[in-house]
Structure prediction request, 255 residues.
Amino acid sequence: MFAEERQQALADLVTRRGRVSVAELSKQFTVTTETVRRDLRALEELGLVRRVHGGAIPVGSVTLTEPRLTDRDLTNVAQKQAIGRAALRFLPSAGATVLLDAGSTTRQLVESLPADRPLTVVTHAVPLAAILTGLPQVQLHLLPGRVRAETQAAVGVETVAALAKLRADVAFMGTNAMSVGHGLSTPDVAEAATKAAMIASAHLAVVLCDSSKLGLERTVRFAALSDVDVLVTDGQIPDETRADFERAGVEVVIA
Prediction:
């Protein structure tokens, strides 16, 4: 394969996968890691990919835009259902307090909650509150704030202030992106502040994130890897990415 053909194939793979490591590319194309890095530099100069720690992501991966919740509910559904069920192992004992972040994956956790475990649940997500209010085992508290149309979740000064007064046993968090270099991130400043306050208010922070978001970066970081305890994801996580997260002290659970 000529260099130009390899680079085109490499760019296509990054676009399809969302994030690919240097080691994976080296193995797939049977070339050295240095050759891969040269290819990535060339592709970045052409504006086709963006180099990140240990690999590359599509050029548009760092962005201020975000899909609406209704669109996200329709993507990677099977993976999110499995992640939601796998996250139940971190559900605290009866009578404990749980913080629930907004998101299509945390919704899958809500829909899998056991009926025989009384819990106090605090959330800023209107769609999750609508489900939780019908569960007799749940004592629901809805956080105040301005509701964003994109996520259907309350954010802002009131939301952050309310969270500062709370202490929960565990926070189940969603994220738009998660990488070694940038941590957990989201496109919106107010959303980031709310997510950071949730993590700060919990003894244990569990991130529910399908593998398509791993290795990506959004504009506003709300947590470093050292701020979270567990990542629950699917089996498509690259081995190198999993190793990087584990070296950073994050327990990785495969759904």
About this structure: The chain has two domains: 3-58, 69-254. The longest strand covers residues 202-208. The domain at 3-58 is CATH 1.10.10.10 (Arc Repressor Mutant, subunit A).
